[in-house]
Amino acid sequence: MNGLSIFSSISAESRARMYDCFGMTRKKFKKGQTVLTYCNSFKSVCVMITGSATLSCIDEDGNNSFLEKIYPNDVFGELFCLPLAKLEYVLCADEDCEVLFIDYNHIITPCSNTCEHHSRLINNLFLISARKLQSLTLRINILTQKNIRKKLLAYLEFRRNLSPDSRDFTLDMSLTDLADYLSVDRASMMREIKALKEEQIIWSEGRKFRFINNDFYI
Amino acid sequence: MNGLSIFSSISAESRARMYDCFGMTRKKFKKGQTVLTYCNSFKSVCVMITGSATLSCIDEDGNNSFLEKIYPNDVFGELFCLPLAKLEYVLCADEDCEVLFIDYNHIITPCSNTCEHHSRLINNLFLISARKLQSLTLRINILTQKNIRKKLLAYLEFRRNLSPDSRDFTLDMSLTDLADYLSVDRASMMREIKALKEEQIIWSEGRKFRFINNDFYI
DNA sequence: CATTTTCTGTGATAATTGCAACAAAAGAGA
DNA sequence: TCTCTTTTGTTGCAATTATCACAGAAAATG
Fold first, then answer.
1. Which domains, ranges and CATH numbers included, belong to chain B?
2. Residue A115 scores a pLDDT above 90
């Protein structure tokens, strides 16, 4: 499920034909550029081809809250997001990236010239959505933990389990970004990391972590 | 998108045939019964037919955190959820309900006897997933608000906008459940509601709410 | 390579939030 | 109808968390 793209099991020749059939367009964005704002009701399903971007929303006071990171083969767009009134949503490119836009109507209505790969593409879209659902459910699961320590440990244990063979693991985001992901103050999170280290529950150095007394390695 | 079910645009006769084709089974559950625990890697896509259920997870200390409510036509199952180790996941029926189980493999692999409605069903599944993504994104959006007041207002304004024609709106859940949804202490939430009323920002009585000084009605 | 920017790390203090406990009201069930 | 349970509403107090402020390390940029 991780190596899945919307074109999985679709040959290169078919892909080319599908571009017309689905009304697809590609567009490149420079680092720092705004890929999309979620206010235009322009309904298209967007797929990240290369690069990455971050969706965040800004409230009246200028507070910025991190919503999600978009990586290659992820889907995004208003179809998957109900924006809250009064908030501004910005999807900003974290690095140079290329995005595929698929016309929403071409997806929901059956292809007139019964394109044989239509159903394969929808199938892929469904599975990519399922993957996205997994990561959102995971984050909700973490965000609903009662305090910073539990949020941290929930995330760290999840990350550790992704690479079960090595004692150490290194986060693929900065501690600043981790605080955003956990939706807590960075300084408070640092304090909690310090406490966990003092209590000999974890060892850490920068983005590198290790669980000390882990019953997992028996 | 709200009236959508996995059988949308599929005739009753076709449905019957699809039961075999997709390896579907139906099962009834009494109120209070456990529909599913998310530890068995039994991969099937589940659809709520009638009734409702709540997915929550319990940690080692017995703390219970609310994950999501499942209503008719919603999809659920481990395909959409990465469980965290050490936590127990229980989907409990809130009322008598009936659930449809669809074999996962029948969904991801193309139907051998090229069933004409296969793609229609996947299409519906994709759209139902998109709807689920909307509601999860919404919740994350709310959970990442900085304090109780902002969480409350974000949710209340979202609810108000669902019925834009009436001044008042009534929550379809108890205030106790709302506190769970916002992942805050109920007493603290009540304190904040009281403050919002004293500051003449909202009026409320039980589950009935109204925004007082709303620039929305000009 | 020099400079700017971002990231990591820390502490004091204030603000927010959770907890425990209680009572009245409302609702469910027998 | 009466009882039992859940919900709403309210406190004081303790615990947690955010805010602010600062400094050195690391990384990015030209």
1. 12-139 (2.60.120.10), 145-211 (1.10.10.10)
2. no
